[in-house]
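Lab manual, section 2.4: Encoding a predicted structure.

Procedure: take the sequence of the chain (222 residues), apply the prediction step described in section 2.3, and record the output as structure tokens. A sample record is shown.
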Amino acid sequence: MSNQVAVPADLADMAAALQQSSAQAGAAGGSDLYAKMTKFGDFVYGADGTEFEEGSVWAVNPNGFQHGHICWDEGTPTGEVLVPATQPMPSEADLPAVSGKWGKQVAIQMRATNGEDEGIQVLFKSNSLGGRKAYATLLQAVIARIQAGKADCVPLVECHNDHYDHKTYGKIFTPEFKVVGWANREGERAEEPAAAIEAPTEPAEKPAEPEAAPRRRRRKAA
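Recorded output:
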């Protein structure tokens, strides 16, 4: 399977539909907190690395899918270029000259709909092969929903992980976005049950970057 995100050739023509379906997630970018999945398989967000609350459901902005490139130099990001998925992938020839090595990156904007994180809006980013495939799987589900004429095309997801064993690097975790429902732009949920969306099985790969264990801090009581 190709590592590129396979989307219909007329995806750009769907930009208006995606924009109108942004629902409760708002516009991409701005003050979103950075989120990622650590090498330990934990979803975290913010400078303190706050873990996603167990059982939390996140509304994904259909207009908040982004793709592009990130440059790493000895574990430190030195450059990043991201554009909406409704635009062509930035050309590698146009990337700025910075120290390090450029690689593909994707991003998904989402907002917590329940629990202690309710209202928190994040931009989940990943440059791993597993992250890009999970992104592609979720994007395809949104596109299929729109093409089916569904107004409720905002996926409501739980963030999980899977893993495989690498003979050199040990257990490698990959993200999974399990669709547990759909909502419309007003945040009203669809009545029909949602089928689970699973990312494809990963081939072996080296971890994208070194990192420390996530900070497990007690959430503040109300």
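Check your result against the sample. DSSP finds two helices and nine strands in the chain.
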